[in-house]
Design brief:
Shape: globular
Largest sheet: 5 strands, parallel
Helix content: 40-55%
Structural class: alpha/beta
Strand content: 5-15%
Radius of gyration: 19 Å
Order of helices and strands: HEHEHEHHHEHEHEEEEEH
Bound molecules: nicotinamide-adenine-dinucleotide
Strand order of the largest sheet: 5-4-6-7-10
Number of helices: 9
């Protein structure tokens, strides 16, 4: 069974258009500022997809493009300017950043109320404490997918492959809040399949094409593929072999988590604008 992210995205974007129209009626144009200091093709592709989707649903995107050799001070100035600008509701710092830049201190400059991708240490602390704040959009997209398809979580064994700040750890926190029993695996986990085969819910965010094959999952599992990898012939593939979809419920790549993530980032921006209306 294939879990379709496009249906969920359509619904989210339709609701979003209504909400942003309402904001505009109150004189607020929901605005997301993106500070970027890279020429990385993957980052450029992601930013273009945010811009295209935002245009469809009435959210403005302000792109602040800095030189890819920008230092911490230059990036900090750009972030502080957007943080102080009352016409900006959401603020993200696009990665990758130039070598040697102090990413943690930069992310700390994003005010909690504008941190629509839950990227700052403060937002991570709020999430760990279970306090209300924006959570990383990809992690929220995983939870949205599970909610839409009514996948039971309470008391279930959820296995998350990947422990990054932006995907693995926040997904694990959210699954824990939803009363799953959570195991986090990573590149140094010994015998990964031993854990993945026991998963009722398996979330894979490693950035390794073909990492999970049909023999690594049990038939009743729900598998959410978060990986986005570009092959030599320019195709987008996930971390999970598509053949897994013949054995279990699978959120595939493409067409699964990716489009929901973009929609939720914009949803968070509109929510931030509505909070101020
Ligand atoms: P990352 O490189 O920061 O983290 C990868 C994680 O995977 C690490 O914790 C590492 O320990 C683990 N890992 C790597 N190889 C492994 C292996 N062989 N076995 C077990 N664990 C392994 O990456 P990230 O930012 O967390 O992104 C992960 C993937 O998700 C990437 O493919 C990325 O492009 C994708 N991604 C997708 C979205 C989306 O919206 N769809 C958003 C963010 C990231």
């Amino acid at each position: 069974m294939i879990l379709d992210g496009k249906i969920i995205t359509r619904q989210l974007l339709s609701d979003l258009s209504d909400q942003s129209a309402e904001c505009r009626e109150h004189g607020q144009v929901p605005t997301l500022a993106i500070v970027m200091a890279t020429t990385d093709e993957g980052a450029a592709w992601y930013v273009r997809s945010i811009q295209k989707t935002a245009e469809k649903c009435g959210v403005a995107v302000r792109l602040i493009e800095l030189n890819p050799t920008a230092d911490t001070e230059v990036i900090a100035d750009a972030l502080q300017e957007q943080a102080a600008d009352s016409s900006v509701h959401g603020l993200i710092l696009q990665t990758p950043l130039p070598d040697g830049v102090a990413i943690d201190s930069l992310l700390s400059l994003i005010p909690l109320a504008k941190d629509v991708d839950g990227a700052s240490p403060l937002a991570a602390g709020y999430l760990a404490y279970g306090l209300p704040s924006f959570v990383p959009a990809t992690a929220a997209a995983v939870m949205k997918m599970l909610e839409y398809y009514h996948i039971p979580l309470t008391g279930k064994h959820a296995v998350v492959v990947g422990r990054s700040r932006i995907v693995g750890k926040p997904v694990a926190q959210l699954l824990l809040q939803a009363h799953a029993t959570v195991t986090i695996c990573h590149s140094r986990s010994a015998d990964l399949a031993r854990y993945t085969r026991e998963a009722d819910i398996l979330v894979v965010a490693a950035g390794k094409p073909g990492l999970i094959t049909p023999t690594d999952v049990q038939p009743d599992a729900t598998v959410i593929d978060v990986g986005t990898n570009v092959t030599a012939d320019n195709a987008l593939v996930g971390d999970v072999d598509p053949a897994v979809g013949s054995k279990t419920a699978l959120s595939p790549v493409p067409g699964g988590i990716g489009p929901i993530t973009t929609a939720l980032l914009l949803q968070h921006t509109v929510t931030a604008a509505r909070t101020r209306t």
